[in-house]
Known about the structure:
Layout: E1 2-3, E2 15-17, E3 27-31, H1 33-39, H2 45-49, H3 51-55, E4 67-69, E5 72-75, E6 78-82, E7 88-95, E8 101-107, E9 122-123, H4 124-139, E10 146-158, E11 162-172, H5 178-187, H6 192-203, H7 213-235, E12 237-238, E13 260-261, H8 285-296, H9 308-315, H10 318-334, H11 340-355, H12 360-371, H13 377-387, H14 392-409, H15 414-424, H16 432-442, H17 448-458
Antiparallel strand pairs: 1-7, 2-4, 3-10, 5-6, 7-8, 8-11, 9-11, 10-11, 12-13
Helix pairs in contact: 4-16, 4-17, 7-8, 7-9, 7-10, 10-15, 11-14, 12-13, 16-17
Amino acid sequence: MRYQNTYVKLDTRLYHEQPPTPLDNPRAGHFNTQVAEQLGWLDDEDLMARWVEILGGQYVPAQFQPLSMAYAGHQFGQWAGQLGDGRGLLMAQVLDNNGQLQDLHLKGAGLTPYSRMGDGRAVLRSTIREYLCGHALTQLGIPSSNALGFVVSDTKVRRERLEAGAALMRVADSHIRFGHVEWIASFAPDLLSEFTDYMIDTYYPECRESETPVLAFLQAVVGRTARMIADWQLIGFAHGVMNTDNLSITGSTLDFGPFGFMERFNPAWINNHSDHTGRYAYQNQPAIGHWNLNIWLPHFMRLEGVTRDTLADCLAPYEATFMQHYQQGLCRKLGLPHAKESLTLAFEWLTLLEDNLLDYSNSFRALLGLVAPNEHPHEQQLLTIMTAEFNNEAQQVWQDWSTRYLAALQPLSSEASIEEMRRNNPVYVLRNSMAQRVITAAEQGQFDELNRVFELLATPYSVQDIATELDTLPPAPHAPQMPISCSS
């Protein structure tokens, strides 16, 4: 691998160098060969032979320089002070096959100075959920951390019960969060200029071409954040805990805790069992993204040339960027051009889904069964299941809407519209029930179901022979929600 450990060269107040604390008897859980190839890991015999030891914290390769990062943050809208990597270590930074810097971050690596009241460990169920979710979002085309693999061990970790400890080697284009700047502003303000230069030079070098590189950088972060959240909304993904310490400066999805993929469509859906006020409900994610940026940006007023007015100019395009990306995506999901008439149909469709508690992913995909039934037997079956749930009134609304929708498609290229719909409406998402089946089997030492689901999520936009009916089966319309916590 091409190592480029740059973070460790920054001021030592920003991190604590330390090795991981080994797990007892680590064993292979799963290894992502696609990520390994991207990193160049596959080409290193030592890394391949000892990957379980590395992820288990028993062996640290010579070119790794493990460290835990210091950062702060606002959690559920309240200043939480110093946080930091409480159970993870940035093990190394490498250039991948595309010349893109990637962080190798070991989660579940043991105690650090930032562990606070925690034990520094991760359990198998949360590790599996993060592993599968990073894989799922990546294959769906949404910027996200992914993972090289994970191990399970004999180390016992207490959460709600005593569980098997595990560790995950997370791979992300950056682990710098909004909270890093918040920590600097509170505890080491003299580092802000140097750290801002590092963020620009490392992750946004194109901003150096601007007459005002710092403002160009801030505008770019605002834009990437808006587009990432629009992607979440389009696919029906709810992060669940959008604290400022959980948002990356690169606009990539980071830190999977109580996440979920929308099933029965309910914009007010709360997937985090501890989010009692619904702050991080699905429908609130765009506004929370704006709130977090509004908290983050003023810290840069300490830098020359950055004023309240220039920061307002940086933040101002957020809503328009989000809306444009989201509305374009909605139209693509329907195979329609981005136009006022298309958006009217799109929002009427979402209302139909909400009023009848229809499954989000299945319903969008079922439209292929309406547009081209002979080519899409799976989608035609989804359409039959969907329309069977309508009462008489809903049936009439559906008939009216589908007639107008087909009329809007009429003047367009049928082949192009169908291909657009296929590319933007997944057959498979990581449903909570799917993840739970994997976890239940893995806790009994059986990983065949994990292998199958991993393969299924690798090509989510295509119907696959390895799928079962359970993979696309939504919960009953009014079934109680499966509680998801940060340790789930």
